[in-house]
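Progress narrative, Year 2. Work on beta-lactamase from Qipengyuania oceanensis advanced from sequence curation to structure prediction during this period.
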Amino acid sequence: MRALFLPLLLATAACTAVPQDEVATSLAEQDLASRMAEIEAASGGRLGVALHSPDAGTVFLHRGDERFAMCSSFKLALAAMALERPGLRDARLGFGPDEVLGYAPYAKQRAALGWMSGLEAARHSVTISDNTAANLLLAELGGPDGFTAWLRGFGDDKTRLDRNEPALNENAPGDPRDTTTPQAHAKLVADLLWGDRLAAADRSLLREWLVETSTGMNRLRAGIPDGWQAGDKTGTCGSGANGQVNDIAVFETPDGARYVLAVYLDRPSGTTAEAEAAIAQAARAIVAMLQQAGA
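Result:
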């Protein structure tokens, strides 16, 4: 099934009256599923969407169990792993000129010194998606295998990291390496931010970094109302026909409901700006559904 809306309606006998709120829910489900299909078709690519609530669980899925490349969206979980590792935030992570990758704005600032702290690496891996910072953390945390094993401890049996930057961005057709599913990653982010494994101060710090993030303002956050508290972590990878544009947003509605929205757009036919606009459209459709439900 390509789309799932919870709560699902139970089958009823023909003679049983269906409550009006269930009728409204069914119509909202159909409308949202149709809208996602329209956005996907217009993009020319494959769209994966998951809306997850830490209180209610999975709320909506479109291709939620299909695999998509994570691109840089893995860096939020990497930062969480770094915060959990004793002593890492205060450690000096040294690097040489040959480790400064093409997209590494913070590492380029620190190149003359040749090191950054673990806390700095975690922060800039999230807020500006610095690739060198992410690789430095991975090297301290057991590499991609260590990262994947850590995820299994959160009950995530789908997400896998196999390479570091920039190789993980290949996004070759049918390649399961460095992939996740929208449903798995939305739940993972909810567990990181609102579960009890990480210290409360670290969960708060991660949320601050997501709000500080500047790379996704044209993606999901462009479709989330200004009055709703929101942050996000982006991912962009592949090139040409193998391109992919992602975003994972965390937001809270005015009534205090909390959500994670994960959207992956694989191999869109247009430009990156057009893919970002499609992701923003997906967010607007989700927001409209939540507002219709009373948010």
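Strands lie at 3-5, 46-53, 57-62, 68-69, 92-94, 115-117, 179-180, 229-237, 244-252, 258-266. Residues 65 and 181 are 5 Å apart (CA to CA).
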